[in-house]
Design brief:
21 helices; single chain; globular; mainly alpha; 503 residues
Length: 503
């Protein structure tokens, strides 16, 4: 069967992700306005819990996605694939019950000893924490179904569903609270309903996609089909856990250090910067199963081109967005919220996390290459070393210097990892690709950085918000054009067209 168009999958994934970023970020000032900063701090704590819950994934979601892609390539037969899916379903269910149950039972400790409450009612907070536990378990369970759907490369369908769910989860909750009260309790009741809908829809789609087996073939309820994949899955599990620590540790530490209202403002800045990473997520969803499929079909050169082209695409879109956001952080926050004091306090945090996330989007690429080859040894080693350095540094910095300290640690860690470790990994697993890979993004990175430094002072920090927004849009569009013109791929295309016209 001919695979779906990779370009269409990337386009659909990106449109969905951009829409999700826009509505999730645009809605934040309304949360703070109608619910208050302290209540929004509880919402930020909920988002952090969802990230931490991924520690229980144990590499199972990427494993089912890769095996689905391998089944598509003809490497795996239908019966063995169904047995693997059944085994992973059992494991996911058990972990969801244990993990969600632990969060549910810890609600009193979290409310009274961890969170720094001021005005919120303790009984409402306990109720919200209990609902959080159920929502987190349900959303984590959908990881199995997302893995199957993305492995079958039904990215367009998944993108549409993600957009619908995001519409309900973000602006939809404001409509619900308009009728039932702008309280934190109403917010989490609605989130529980959406989590249930998301779970049912994704589960139904994944079961529809599963290959059919004859009634004479016994699938069974054994977890033995997982055993041959344990090495690969556990390697991903460790690296995924490190990824969670990378992205959530500072938020976890600060949730117990800062007053909940201040934590709400910190969360706001980090979520805006998180849009950079969300912009990079759609590229991994289509290319990881495609690269795994090409590797299974022994089409090595095609896989290499997918890898380089995707890197260049990320550089033009994601890295450019990170540089621009860092350059105009304070004007962006003011134009967005209308609160000059919030913009002044949150801008330094936003700058550090925006740049760090842009570098992380690039540093993640060798993982995609190793994932396709089914060998994550170097990724495992690099992440182990990184976490041994990062964890104590970020804990110390967050406790002593707050959000700014955590931000500096985050940025410097990503810079060192990109320059030294990524280069080493490329030399080991894909000889002769290192120079081509760095050339795919360095020209645009340097050009955009210089441009933003020169023009960032043109944007005011206060005044007419519409004018500020228009200036930011102009800078963003010009930056993307500069990044495209600096791109090696785009330059080659332009040269080729020029030569053809000359002939």
């Amino acid at each position: 069967m001919k695979p779906p168009s990779l370009r269409l999958n990337i386009l659909a994934s990106y449109l969905s992700q951009i829409y999700l970023i826009i509505i999730s970020i645009a809605i934040l000032p309304f949360y703070i306005k109608y619910m208050g900063a302290e209540a929004y701090g509880l919402v930020g704590f909920f988002a952090m819990l969802q990230g931490l819950f991924n520690l229980l994934d144990f590499g199972l979601t990427p494993t089912i996605s890769r095996q689905t892609a391998q089944y598509n390539a003809g490497v795996e037969n239908a019966l063995n694939f169904r047995r693997l899916f059944r085994a992973l379903s059992l494991i996911f269910l058990v972990i969801a019950i244990l993990g969600g149950g632990a969060l549910y039972l810890l609600d009193n400790y979290i409310a009274t000893h961890w969170l720094k409450l001021n005005n919120l009612n303790i009984d409402e907070v306990l109720f919200c924490l209990q609902v959080m536990a159920i929502c987190v378990a349900l959303r984590w369970m959908t990881g199995l179904y997302r893995g199957v759907i993305s492995g079958f490369e039904h990215i367009v369908w998944l993108s549409i569903v993600n957009s619908i769910i995001a519409t309900l989860r973000f602006p939809g909750v404001l409509l619900y609270m308009y009728y039932f009260g702008f309280t934190v309790k109403s917010f989490f009741v609605f989130q529980l309903a959406i989590a249930l809908i998301e779970f049912i829809v994704l589960a139904a789609k994944s079961f529809q996609l599963l290959p059919k087996v004859s009634t004479q073939e016994f699938i069974g309820w054994s977890i033995k089909p997982v055993k041959p994949l344990l090495g690969f899955a556990l390697t991903i599990a460790v690296t995924s856990s490190i990824w969670v620590l990378f992205t959530q540790l500072d938020k976890f530490v600060l949730s117990g250090v800062l007053p909940l209202a201040d934590y709400g403002y910190f969360t706001l800045a980090v979520l805006v910067a998180g849009g950079i990473l969300q912009l990079s997520a759609p590229i991994s969803a289509p290319i990881m199963p495609r690269m795994a499929r090409l590797e299974g079909e022994q089409q090595h050169e095609q896989m290499r081109q997918v890898y380089l082209n995707a890197t260049q695409f990320i550089a033009v879109i994601v890295v450019t967005a990170g540089i621009v956001l860092a350059g105009v952080a304070r004007p962006v926050l003011y134009a967005w919220t209308g609160d000059s004091n919030l913009a002044l306090q949150a801008a330094p945090v936003l700058q550090l996390y925006a740049l760090g996330n842009a570098l992380l989007a690039l540093a993640a690429f060798p993982y995609y290459l190793q994932y396709a080859k089914g060998n994550l040894r170097y990724h495992f080693i690099g992440n182990i070393v990184s976490v041994l350095i990062l964890v104590p540094c970020i804990v110390w910095a967050a406790i002593h210097y707050g959000a700014i300290g955590a931000g500096w640690v985050w940025l410097l860690t990503q810079l060192v990892y990109l320059i030294f470790w990524v280069s080493y990994v490329h030399r080991k697993i894909e000889p002769n690709i290192n120079v081509a890979w760095f050339k795919s993004f360095l020209p645009s990175l340097i050009s955009v950085s210089l441009f933003v430094i020169l023009v960032s002072k043109w944007v005011d920090h206060s005044g007419d918000r519409l004018t500020i927004l228009l200036k930011i849009i102009v800078i963003s569009v010009l930056s993307i054009m500069i990044a495209m013109l600096s791109s090696v791929r785009v330059l080659n295309i332009l040269k080729l067209r020029f030569v053809k016209r000359a002939i």
